[in-house]
């Protein structure tokens, strides 16, 4: 048999209908729903008197809007309405919901894997572009718009054009103190924010195999920032070990049988991709973004670019625009940039290993007096576990605010906002203009780098700090 | 969805690259639960200052561009968040056609679902249009059937588009209704899958 990529295998298994001149009609195994991109979809169903085909394959939570000081004290009336509407919709249509204060509540891309809903070989969609996170498990997971949410609710399928396949091969090993976040930022910096347009990425290579599941999620999470439809990683023993015993994963014998099926999904030896790009992991250093998209990024030990050195016209224009917005001088050292806010959280970096990495840097130190620092765990489960390990105490003693789970300052739809003109070292995934609040300036970094910036009040190479055991 | 076959409109040039969906419609306006009424928030932070006053130096606020319905912009338009509020805001404001050298995938798809036509032209052609549209009331005509864009003078360009979204838009089709005619096939797929487990 001809060798195939995991992308092709999953695709072919999900084709419900094929017809010349049309995209493929693809079956969707799991549909995750949240409060912001779903109300108009439910409304559309109601208007056309349509039913939900498979409420059992649909799972909802609240994350984008939820307050993180006290979850049930919602001052914003419109936000509250949106959450109430989701609750009513789930009740009316029979959809499982992990709402406010539910033990399973959290950022949709954190709880999917945590609950074992995310599994190898599944097609997974959500009205959110960072759905690519679930690809870490060897699932084909992608973000959709609200009309498509409605389409999936009504038919459990989507019309999808077959994507191109793009292999991102990560050779060698990451250095000590260099993380999955630094790697994905370096990939985007090297190849650009649209390298993946029209494609699904498969990440391969030694550094990827070496990663834990949580690190793989960080990498896949940012596939969309490289323009890709989705990003995934072939499953292996680590994938199976992570899923074993999770609430919605197959149990006991059924699980063992599933493993065989999942193992066979991995890309075959000799399979061909439409394109392959490569990066040497050993050359990656801790990254800091200086601009207004994730590719505008450099090593902490380097400088903000100089305009004259950029040849291409449209790129020069973009950099100029970005530096003006960020209020940075061309050529200045990254380490001279000071920050007023630090945010550790988001579907990119809010899991246990992220919090541990931050705690190792923070333990025994104090947040810089000029910095307001926030830690927002990705889910209630993460929050409880961190408290069991005593991480919350380390953070609070250092001067961090320890919050309730949600998206929070990643997109600043709730009260967690960076004021105009101020800077934030953030572990999230987008540094667009105004992402963390109108006029806010975002610098994307790893959790350890964010923790170091919280203490120093500016960017430092975390590898030069001593870390504590937590 | 309103069908779109042939369309003529005034062009508004937005000479920026990587315009993301948060710039098209900032997140503080995503809390509404309706599809309509987002146009007033389009490009909010560019159109309005911190006091909520119109910024005079933003071209779209210029009287001469008020009735524009074709937007021309730089590459990678619509990147970022998957929010469909972006095409809703564009449409509600009055834009039916967006022209750029490239679009982000999700945004591109979202447009078709709402009767907005995204057109990919070559970078030189887009540059030309950005230049031409500095002249107020500059008009373009789009013929979706023939896949062409032209003005009354010398500009003429051909664009590529897949036959499926083209046909959907030309006929203003309800995609869900169409998929539901394949209900038997979906059921058969589900049964086959069930048997495998
Ligand atoms: S954490 Fe940020 S990127 Fe992730 S789902 Fe929430 S808002 Fe989107």
TrEMBL record, chain A:
Keywords: 4Fe-4S, Amino-acid biosynthesis, Branched-chain amino acid biosynthesis, Iron, Iron-sulfur, Leucine biosynthesis, Lyase, Metal-binding. Its cofactor is [4Fe-4S] cluster. Coiled coil: none annotated. It comes from the Bacteria. Pathway: Amino-acid biosynthesis; L-leucine biosynthesis; L-leucine from 3-methyl-2-oxobutanoate: step 2/4. Heterodimer of LeuC and LeuD. This is 3-isopropylmalate dehydratase large subunit. It comes from Scopulibacillus daqui.
Automatic annotation (TrEMBL), chain B:
It holds the Pfam family Aconitase_C. The keyword Metal-binding does not apply. Residues 1-124 form the Aconitase A/isopropylmalate dehydratase small subunit swivel domain. Gene3D superfamilies: Aconitase, domain 4. One of its GO terms (molecular function) is 3-isopropylmalate dehydratase activity. Its EC number is 4.2.1.33. Pathway: Amino-acid biosynthesis; L-leucine biosynthesis; L-leucine from 3-methyl-2-oxobutanoate: step 2/4. Keywords: Amino-acid biosynthesis, Branched-chain amino acid biosynthesis, Leucine biosynthesis, Lyase. It catalyses: (2R,3S)-3-isopropylmalate = (2S)-2-isopropylmalate. Catalyzes the isomerization between 2-isopropylmalate and 3-isopropylmalate, via the formation of 2-isopropylmaleate. PANTHER family: 3-ISOPROPYLMALATE DEHYDRATASE SMALL SUBUNIT, 3-ISOPROPYLMALATE DEHYDRATASE SMALL SUBUNIT 2-RELATED-RELATED. Heterodimer of LeuC and LeuD. Belongs to the LeuD family. LeuD type 1 subfamily. This is 3-isopropylmalate dehydratase small subunit. It comes from Scopulibacillus daqui. The lineage of its organism: Bacteria, Bacillati, Bacillota, Bacilli, Bacillales.
